[in-house]
Design goal:
Layout (H helix, E strand, L loop, with lengths): L4 E2 L4 E8 L2 E5 L2 E5 L4 E4 L5 E2 L9 E8 L5 E9 L3 E6 L5 H14 L3 H24 L7 H16 L7 H8 L3 H12 L3 H18 L4 H7 L5 H12 L3 H12 L1
Antiparallel strand pairs: 1-6, 2-5, 2-7, 3-4, 7-8, 8-9
Length: about 250
Amino acid sequence: MAENAHRHEYAEVVVSLSGSHFYGIDGNAIQLSPGSTALIPRGVPHDSWYSEYHPECIDFWLHFLPHGVVLMNFIYHQPASGPVPVQIPQLPVALQDDFRRVCLLLNDHVSSRQKARHFVTYLLHELFESLMESDFRNDNPDERSVIEEVKRYAMDHLTDRLTLPDLAKAAGYSPFHFHRLFLEAEGVTPRAFVESQRLKQACELLRKGQSTTSVALDVGFATPSQFSKVFKKQFKMSPTEWLKTAKGSAR
């Protein structure tokens, strides 16, 4: 391995997709078989190329660059012709943010790298799910219709608790995958969408003369204080102040 080793100032992850083979990492021969994953920390020496002794294989590589950038590619290796890198599309927006955080963790001190190891496993699952289901496209008509159905469901159940798992279950997706799809489709998180609809309905009820306490409970907030806090964050004034302003502008 010594004469075929190099190292980077960033971490890498390799996922074996096809073909069992050995890969040199930090002076050790690590066996990679379909489904296995190896995390190569920053500065750790590893093989710089696939030799003719590597059997035919397909590996998926993630390069976690220091400034929060992730590069991905598949390596198709055939002993007769050598490795052929194939670039894949850019990460979806929501996954970009999560992988950016992992980049910073992996390139930070040791305790952060330990946290990142667990996060990487989960993100790899979501990444491959995204590759298989949506091919990184935002115009999937089935996903669009599911998002619209969930929005209607949320509008009809604003007085319910409506947690992310609840909405994801209605969509038929995992919470993480649903959160990503919704954010890409609507530009806001599911929670932000629900809050905006509750506040919209709250404004209508305030105009009709209902008290703040009554409105808070009628539109699905747990307590009047929670309602006032969310309302003030959105409108930069309390419900009472907003109502005075609304009545004044209506004259």
